[in-house]
Design a protein that fits this description.
alpha/beta; 228 residues; 21% strand; Rossmann fold; 29% helix
Amino acid sequence: MTELLPCVEIDARGEAAGTVIWLHGLGASGHDFEPIVPLLQLPQARFVFPHAPTRGVTINGGLLMPAWYDIVTLGSAGGGEDADDVRESALLIEALIAREAARGIAASRVVLAGFSQGAAMALFVGHRHPEALRGIMVLSGYEVLAHTREAEGQAANRDTPLLSCHGTCDPMVPIARARAAYRAYAHPGRPAEWHELPIGHEVSPPEIVVIRDWLARRLAPEERPPSS
């Protein structure tokens, strides 16, 4: 059985309409996006912010830090990620989705979200998850192991709603790389949104509004039939 990652959790008020599993970026922690939750005004949602495993990161001189995977080289075309690390982290994230099911939140009510390296993992896991998710949110992100996309993709999440946001001044992840990832997944028939913002490698107040509105549509409480 896969060990569960430690997480920061903010539970819904009352019965949860869904869960947002939100993955942080390189060197950050599950606390990184915790302060955003009140701004999203989604009391019906549970938020789960896992802490990535600690590992050495080659591009940072081997320094130990929270990281979903090692980055061996940097390049605008990508491909510098450690494949074994990506797959190891994918199993850890899948375990969190399974835990939500055990707590009464089926995959169809889970949004997988992330920032930067965490966004790459959200896209990777969301595309390959065998059950349909409620949505995939990619913030300042990109694609990893792109060469495995076609062979490993699951039909269940081919049309899962997708939100991608990226800064036009991002010095860490070139916007061209983010656009390429979005175009690879935003095929006809999929509800997909692309938002460019005049920011760097960060999340801005206008972006939080975009996120809030998109999540509100994904996690609207389901209507219950009237009692007889």
